[in-house]
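Lab notes, practical 5.
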Amino acid sequence: MRNRFRSAEWFYGRDELGFQHRSALRAMGIDVGQFEGRPVIGIANSWSELNNCDAGLRTLAEAVKKGVLAAGGLPLEFPTISLGEELTKPTAMLYRNLMAMDVEEMLRSNPIDGVVLLGNCDKTLPAQLMGAASADLPAIVLNGGPRSSGVWRGIEVGSGTDLWKYWDEYRTGMITRQDWEELERCIACGIGACNVMGTASTMAALCEALGMMLPGAATICATDARRLAAAEASGRRIVAMTEAGLRPSGILTFEAFENAIRVCMAIGGSTNAIIHLIAIAARRGIRLPLDRFDSLSRTTPFVANVKPSGQHLLAQLDAAGGVPAVMKEIEPLLHGHCRTVTGKTVRENLAGVNSDNDDVIRFFSEPLSAEGAIAVLWGNLAPNGAILKTSAASRELMANTGRAVVFEDYQDMLARIEREDLEVEPSSVLVLKNCGPKGVPGMPEWGAIPIPGKLRKAGVRDMIRISDGRMSGTSYGTVVLHVSPEAAAGGPLAVVQNHDQIRLDVGERRLELLVAPAELQRRLSNWTPPATKYLRGYPRLYIDHVLQADEGCDFDFLRPNNEEELAFVPPVVGRS
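Output from the prediction step:
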């Protein structure tokens, strides 16, 4: 019985080491002997006062502990890096891989048999899944939930999406300073993630779709009592999973990732999810090529009428049945046999599920759009692909040719975007370079380039914008993102010049720089890499080892190269 779980190697192995390890817990008032033969459950908590999205996780951790104890396990909570999207600069994405390493190594190096992953903000959930996928201990995800809705002048406002909308109105004089200050006080009413289908809510939904979260948990409001119940249920369930040996490797299959991709398209999910899904899958040795995302998008209806691509907030989606109701609507397209953390299959989990509001979750036969929310583009400007969120774009711009207005970097854009002498017109294509994985570094959410001030004042609300950066999942507009290879890595984006003609054709999935092949090659041969100010530390490591967007922006050395690396578990030997 003593050798049933890996934690037994710490507590019941060699006498002097077992003595040392048991006494370490006794020093904290824990008699591990009372749990002999029972699993030790880690609770990986990304709570932080620097992260308002994850501020409710301490309370959830206590509820998880109740569930673990009720099921006979020993809960041991530990902190991880916490990545708050608002405060972490230049971008939380720079540190996603570091957080994933933190989670993986904490799981590997400690007496943990199974883990509950507590996250919420954009990068916390994918980072935790990446680390757990590599460590391959039984794991279950629990998010902190979306925040409650604020009301401004009788209108429910969605954090993120309405920020960008009203910022454009404020900077062009359509609302006053007093209006702006009133909005600040009510747009984020309480702790929790953005209450629209931004990256945080998308990744929570995809954790469900992957089978790594209890059904229905993703959309429960951060302050709803049902979230505490979900936390306690997750604690009980991880004990059962650990006893059954149900690991991420048994859940995170290629078919499970296809389910997640389809759900992403059906809910109008964040473009950031593509990068995260590719990275998580690669930790299990699974390749997700961009053309697979595109083919699944073309055959998946967009059914969730939620901001920024629709009309409603997360509370309405939850009331309509949440992610299970969305999955039920597209069930004919899903791999129903995929196993989940419940111990049941997707098909079994969806039995008896229904939607309670056909305006929030549209019928399969009457979707918001017959195709999914995201298109993948290729062409001489994006040899390895680029992304466009079609559900948030303007139809009239989907097939267009325009003259490039080029910004060499983010600072150049900020310095010139509001200038009255900027040579720009409504048909122009705004191009932003050097904001990709290596270029900043970290690939910030700078892709939603503001509409130039003089055009905004003239009534222009959208333009084609192209960059090698990302865009907040709460943003909207005809914005081409993740151009790969990025400019800083010598991709064709690096040599786009002012007045070049660029053609976007979403129907044909093309993004073309209309210059002669010989001229493009001449420019590329004369290109030199930009200098970086980062000469040491983690940013230097990131620049040297980060993969491109189409490969998930993980580090090259964190991906397994063969079955032996995929299955590696370091031995427990010696004293500390």
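Observations recorded by the TA: The two ends are 25 Å apart (CA to CA). Residues 122 and 200 are 4 Å apart (CA to CA).
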